[in-house]
Amino acid sequence: xxLDWGRVWRWLPVGAxxxxxxxxxxAVSVPGSNFMAFVLSLSAWMVVAGMTVGLAIIGLIGLPxxxxxxxxxxxxxxxxxxxxxxxxxxxxxxxxxMFDLHRGRLEALVAEAAEQPDRRVEDRWVGIYxxxxxxxxxxxxxxxxxxxxxxxxxxxxxxxxxxxxxxxxGDGYRYKPIDGPWYEYTLVW
Length: 189
Description:
By secondary structure, the chain is of the alpha+beta class. It contains four helices and six strands.
């Protein structure tokens, strides 16, 4: 079987856009976002955009006459903006979906920490999250995420079964509601 390079180069940006989409969704899947994954995804999207424009120009120049009739061969390049639009539309809900998928195991970890307050829970994997340590603040159980990627803050989940915790005015904990007694916290310094 012979490889048809004419088709390969037309589909190459679509495949690269898929990789960039996965990196983008991974970057926003944890509280505070993963900075390194965000930089990688942004770089990948710039490469994809350059590749798409470059291949479209080269493809249009290389098409046989009449170009307007044969330009339909370049239709895979039109999928790249669609992949980008869908990725950015879905990105806002990824963190909530990932939390919902792991909520039961996070609640089990909070219960385990409550049963044994003298035992320190460290470096636990809960799905895609690595809980580096568990602490307390204002009656909340804080699950600190390891390497969440926030540059100047520590992030994680807070389980506050009582009332809503108060945000610090300066340096300290800031809380954003997720669902019920669960909050996303950021320790800003």
